[in-house]
Amino acid sequence: MNNILRPQPWYRRAAQAVPQHFGLKFFGIPTFIAVFFTAYFYVLKNPAYPVTVLPFTWLDHMVSFQPLAVPLYVSLWVYVSLPPAFLASRPELKTYGLGMTLTCLTGLVIFYFWPTTVPPATIDWALYPSVDFLKNIDASGNACPSLHVATAIFSGIWAQHLLGRFGAPLWVRLFNASWCIGIAYSTLATRQHVAVDMWAGIALGAFTAWLSLRHAPRSTNMDHQPSTSIRPTSGQS
Description:
Elements: E1 3-7, H1 10-17, H2 22-45, E2 52-53, H3 58-62, H4 70-74, H5 76-79, H6 82-85, H7 90-113, E3 116-117, H8 129-137, H9 147-166, H10 170-189, H11 195-214, H12 221-224, E4 228-232
Parallel strand pairs: 2-3
Antiparallel strand pairs: 1-4
Helix pairs in contact: 2-7, 7-9, 7-11, 9-10, 9-11
């Protein structure tokens, strides 16, 4: 019997990774987010020094206020949950978690010793209920570096790494990059951050992603090698 080895589609390979260590992912991701927000709001309300107001730059003037960018801004919490969901090994989950922890902890230490905020905008937030709601739950302090941007960049780089491993097509990788860039854009468009915050967040997220991937354990052969199915050649046995 002649057999044909056919590679398994990339999305099936990705789906096979999701159930791996599901309990750790299911409880670990929301627990990490809850702990982060507890520390974030504590630092926001208890800065060690006077708050510095950051400047507007040419880029801030170029990016107009866009209330429709709020859903994109909020989508970060879905976006950052995706890369760890598609990790199949516990050592790699640990490396990812340590990298994300380093990203957030670096930001929190900076916020505590150098508290910053964005300049007041001449906008009546009451005219934009969705943005007003966002402003009430996510005050414009703890600005630089933007952890919103830093965690998006960190997640985006890891996502590109995983998509390459699974053999995802170009359009999927472009979609991932566009989503990541869109989240960074939304921080300016909602006036939650200024460009200085964004650039600092990009630098922080890119560095910690590079550092964590550099020390990431080698994935298993199952991760690298596409699974195959065997089908008999028609008319032959």
